[in-house]
Design a protein that fits this description.
The protein is mainly beta. It has strands at 3-7, 10-12, 18-25, 33-39, 46-51, 57-59, 67-72, 77-82, 91-101, 105-110, 114-118.
Amino acid sequence: QLQLVESGGGLVQPGGSLRLSCATSGSTLEDYATGWFRQAPGKEREAVATLTSGGRTNYADSVKGRFTISRDNAKNTVYLQMNSLKPEDTAVYYCYVGVIRIPSGLDDYWGQGTQVTVSS
């Protein structure tokens, strides 16, 4: 059983940067795939960035070149570095970790969400 605690959200001006952190506890993180999702008001939750347990990354087209997902397995923490922020990046950001276990199936967890607001 994992617990996820997010931090790092806030208000930033367009063009600014933020780094989100997702600290996990209760189990080692290294077996899990990790990701960041976001949900803007009136919109569905969308995947922003993913990082497999093997280190492969993938990004939504809207954030490619601006956002970077990373993890520190020693600290059991996942990060999302967000640069060149735009007003359309405003959303609640959620950390996700998951792994498929045999025979029990999907073992996944969500963070509580952290608000990111990009506005002048």
